Structures are given as structure tokens and as C-alpha cells.
Amino acid sequence: MKTFRLIMMCILIVGVVFACKNGTTAEKSSSSADESAKKEVKAVEITVKTDTESINKGKELFDSKCSFCHDYTSTKTIVGPGLKGVLKNSELPVSRKPAIPENIVNQIKNPYKDMPSFAYLPEKDVLNIIAFLNTL
Q1: Cα gap 104→87, rounded to integer Å
Q2: What is the CATH number of the domain that holds 120?
Q3: 88 part of a folded domain
Q4: 63 partner at 20 to 30 Å CA-CA among 1, 14, 100, 136?
Q5: pTM of the model
Q6: What is the largest CA-CA distance in the chain?
Q7: Residue 67 belongs to what domain range?
Q8: Residue 95 · residue 81 · CB < 8 Å
């Protein structure tokens, strides 16, 4: 009997954790989840990597994940805006937010407008992409 209760409690706890983690509770709206995620991204100040290894890895990642929609050699729009000089401008091309690394992380993880989310990318990969974008 104790084993049965223990198993049922574990199932209940796993179910609650899963529901909360995946935002399936009725009280949690996706917009409030998006807003809290955006605030978390902005809370951390980013130091842009400038070493050759990070920049090269960032270019590889950009080529494999971003180049379908973004041209890094110009400001010409393909599907998304061209990103030449993106961190040297005063604002990002579409959202018009300040062109700072924190806002690029936010754009990658919680995209504005039609861009797909790349929230699955590890932080080190996102920082390497920013290292590459900083060279444009």
C-alpha cells in the first residue's frame, strides 16, 4: 500500500512539474511567459567575445542557422534584414530596439515579428554568433 501511494505521489509531482514547465496551466498565458523570458535575457549584461575561435565558430553557426534569411555582407533584405554593421548601428533593423548584444540575444531567443525562435541554442553558441556579428 505504501509503495502504491509513493508511486501515485511521484506521478502527481511529475505531472505538475511537466505542466508548469511547459506552460500548460490555464493561469499562465504565453504573453506573460514571453515577457518574463525577455526580462531575464535583458537582466544580464553581455561581454562580447573577441577571440578568433569564438568569431569563427559564430560565423559557422551563422552560416548554418541564419544565412538562409540574413545577408551579413550587406543591409539588403533577403527574408530578414541584412546584418552588416548591425552592432555598429544605433538600433536593430526591425524592432528598432538599441543595437546592443543583450537585444540580439533577446531577438534570437524571443524573436520579434516573423523570425523563428532559436531558444534551443546553448548560450555559448549565441555568444559566438554575437562575436561574429560584432565583426561586421
Answers
A1: 9
A2: 2.60.40.420
A3: yes
A4: 100
A5: 0.68
A6: 69
A7: 38-133
A8: no
Tell me which of 23 and 68 has the higher pLDDT.
68
CA distances from 70 to 36, 77, 124 (A): 27, 7, 21
Is 6 within the bounds of a domain?
Answer: no
Nearest to 134 by CA among 54, 45, 42, 40: 54
List, for residues 42-87, the tens digit of each pLDDT value: 456 889 999 999 999 999 999 999 999 999 999 999 999 999 999 9
33-45: string of b/e by CB count within 10 Å (b at 16+)? eeeeebeebeeee
> What is the count of structural domains for the chain?
1
pLDDT for 45 equals 83
15 within some domain: no
| Cell numbers at 45, concatenated | 549584461
